[in-house]
Specification:
Mean pLDDT: 95
Shape: globular
Distance between the termini: 52 Å
Strand order of the largest sheet: 12-11-7-10-9-8-17-18
Number of strands: 18
Structural class: alpha/beta
Order of helices and strands: EHEHHEHEHEHEHEHHEEEEEEEEEHHHEE
Strand content: 25-35%
Low-confidence stretches: none
CATH topology of the largest domain: Rossmann fold
Length: 423
C-alpha cells in the first residue's frame, strides 16, 4: 500500500501518563510523517493538558508541534469537564481516530461515543472489562466499517514475534508452565492512580498482568480456561483503598499454567522504571524447552553523574526496546521501540482503510472496509476485538475472582462464551 493525502485527525481522550510517555509523542511523529493532521487532547480538567503543553521533552523532540487542548489550559485546574470528550468527538468528521486513554472502567463509555460518531479507535489495554461489551463493540464497529486496535504493545516486541513464529513451527514443543511479573514503580501510588485505582475499579492483574496473559496467547495460540487472582490491599496517600499487589494463576486449554505477579511497589530508586519479565517451560514429551525474556534489563546499563527522576536513576537499565526518543536524521528526536511500533501499526491501519476506499462508491467502500477489517483480524498481530476477545474473558474472570478472595473462575467457550465460578 502507498501513502495518500487523506490525513487523519486524532482526538486523544485522556491526558495522563500513557499519553505523555507513549501516545502523544508517537502521534506527533506520525504527524511529522504525513499520516496525522490535527491533534486534540481532551481531559477531565486543564492540569494534565498544561503539563503536556509545557513538556520540555516534547519541545526538544517535536519543535513547532502542538495540540488543541480541551478544555483550554487557561481554565482553572479545579474546574471539571466530565462531558467535554462527548462534545469534541461529536464534532469530528467521520472516519478519523479517537484514542481512548482513560482509566479502564471508562473505556466502554468513550468507545461507544466514538463508534456513534463513526470514528476509528485506538484503545489502551484492556479494551473493556466484560466480554459482552467487547462483543457489542466488535459488531457495532464492523457494521460501520470502523477499525479498532487495542494497544497491547508487547505483541510488537521483536522477541515475542520471534517466539510466535518458532512456536508455530513446533520448535518449542508445547507450553507447560511458566511465570510472569510486572511490578510498576512505587511513585504510582502518589499519582492520579490514587483517585481511580481503587478496589471496586481495578487491580494490578487487570492493569498490567493482562499484557503477559495476552502475550502467552499471542505467542502460543492457547486459550485461557481458568483464572484465579488473590489481591493484597493497601492504602493510597489520600486514604483510598486499592489492591497494591496481586498473584494470578491462569490455566490454559492444554493444561499449561501461567503464574502472574503484579503490583505497584518497584523501588523508585531501582535501576529500572519497573520490574518485568516472563519465563515459559515447554516440552515435546521427549525434550524440554525454555522461553525466558528478561524485560527488566535487556543488556543496556548506564551509570550517570546526575539522575532524571524516578525510573531515571544514577545506575539505570536504559533499554530502548519499549519507548525512547532518540536523535535521527530529521528535526528534533524520533520515537523508537515497540511502544511506538504498536501505535504506528494501529493508526496506519485506519489510514490505509480510509485511503483504500476513498474513491469508491459508498456501497463498495463499505464492503472493502469490512474485508480489510477481517484481514487484520486474521493476521492476528494487532489486537482487535475479534482476535483478542480472550482478554476480556480473562479480565472479567480475574475481577470476579479477586473480589471473592481468589475463588477460581472458569472461562467457557463455544456459542456463548462466558465466565462462571468453578464448581
Amino acid at each position: 500500500m502507498t501513502l495518500e493525502n487523506n490525513k487523519l485527525k486524532v482526538t486523544i481522550v485522556g491526558g495522563g501518563m500513557i499519553t505523555h510517555d507513549q501516545l502523544l509523542p508517537s502521534i506527533y511523529h506520525l504527524k511529522r510523517l504525513g499520516i496525522v493532521d490535527d491533534i486534540t487532547v481532551c481531559a477531565l480538567n486543564s492540569a494534565p493538558l498544561k503539563d503536556l503543553a509545557d513538556s520540555e521533552a516534547f519541545k526538544k523532540a517535536f519543535p513547532c508541534f502542538g495540540f488543541r487542548a480541551c478544555p483550554d489550559i487557561s481554565e482553572s485546574p479545579k474546574k471539571m469537564f466530565p462531558n467535554k470528550f462527548r462534545e469534541i468527538i461529536g464534532k469530528m468528521d467521520p472516519y478519523n481516530v479517537v484514542v481512548v486513554a482513560v482509566p479502564d472502567q471508562f473505556h466502554y463509555d468513550v468507545i461507544k461515543e466514538a463508534i456513534a460518531a463513526s470514528q476509528h479507535i485506538l484503545c489502551v489495554k484492556p479494551l473493556v472489562l466484560k466480554y459482552s461489551q467487547s462483543l457489542e463493540i466488535e459488531k457495532l464497529a464492523y457494521e460501520k466499517g470502523l477499525f479498532i486496535g487495542i494497544e497491547y504493545h508487547k505483541r510488537f516486541d521483536r522477541r515475542a514475534l520471534l517466539v510466535k513464529g518458532d512456536y508455530a513451527s513446533g520448535r518449542f514443543g508445547e507450553f507447560k508452565i511458566g511465570e510472569a511479573r510486572m511490578v510498576e514503580p512505587w511513585f504510582y501510588r502518589n499519582s492520579n492512580f490514587q483517585n481511580w485505582f481503587v478496589k471496586e475499579n481495578s487491580d494490578p492483574f487487570t492493569y498490567v498482568g493482562c499484557h503477559y496473559v495476552d502475550q502467552v496467547y499471542f505467542m502460543t495460540g492457547l486459550k485461557p480456561v481458568n483464572v484465579s487472582v488473590i489481591g493484597i490491599e493497601g492504602k493510597f496517600p489520600n486514604g483510598k483503598i486499592g489492591y497494591m499487589w496481586t498473584s494470578g494463576r491462569v490455566v490454559f486449554e492444554n493444561g499449561g499454567i501461567l503464574n502472574v505477579v503484579d503490583g505497584l511497589g518497584y523501588p523508585d530508586d531501582g535501576a529500572g522504571s519497573n520490574d518485568q519479565g516472563i519465563t515459559l517451560f515447554c516440552d515435546d514429551g521427549k525434550k524440554g524447552a525454555l522461553i525466558r525474556h528478561n524485560d527488566q534489563n535487556r543488556g543496556v546499563t548506564h551509570s550517570f553523574v546526575k539522575d532524571a527522576g524516578p525510573g531515571g536513576t544514577l545506575y539505570n537499565f536504559a533499554s530502548p526496546d519499549y519507548f525512547k526518543l532518540v536523535p535521527w536524521e530529521g528535526e528534533g528526536l524520533k520515537p523508537v521501540g515497540y511502544g511506538y511500533d504498536s501505535v504506528e501499526a494501529i493508526i496506519k491501519s485506519a489510514y490505509f482503510i480510509n485511503n483504500e476506499t476513498a474513491q469508491m462508491s459508498k456501497q463498495d467502500a463499505m464492503g472493502r472496509k469490512r474485508e480489510m477489517l477481517k484481514s487484520v483480524d486474521r493476521k492476528g498481530i494487532i489486537a482487535t476485538p475479534a482476535n483478542s476477545y480472550i482478554n476480556e474473558l480473562v479480565m472479567e474472570a480475574g475481577r470476579m475472582s479477586i473480589l471473592h478472595k481468589g475463588r477460581p473462575v472458569n472461562i467457557v467457550y463455544g456459542n456463548n462464551p462466558h465466565v462462571e465460578f468453578s464448581k
